[in-house]
Write a structure and sequence with these properties.
about 90% helix, about 0% strand, rod-shaped
Length: about 90
């Protein structure tokens, strides 16, 4: 799952950069307050929101994986010790 999130983040960053370039170009050709520029800006905002949402998800997945790894150490360590005694 974390790989999937990472791929989505990379794709979103690429889209964000392209949309930012498009917005700047549109603003230079029309104006900073033109409908086209505002539309690009709103689309850029949506891409950034999606990126931030994926980052939050990535952080949560990483956190829960760390917790599960720690728990498994506490569960597996006694089992391994018992097997060594036998």
């Amino acid at each position: 799952m974390q790989d999937e999130i990472g791929n989505n983040l990379s794709l979103l960053l690429e889209k964000i950069n392209l949309k930012r370039e498009e917005m700047i170009s549109t603003a230079m050709q029309t104006s900073f307050t033109s409908e086209e520029t505002i539309k690009c800006s709103q689309e850029l905002d949506q891409l950034i929101i999606h990126y931030q949402t994926y980052k939050i998800l990535e952080n949560r997945v990483g956190f829960y994986q760390s917790v599960l790894n720690t728990i498994s150490l506490f569960v597996m360590q006694p089992i391994l010790s018992i097997n060594k005694i036998k």
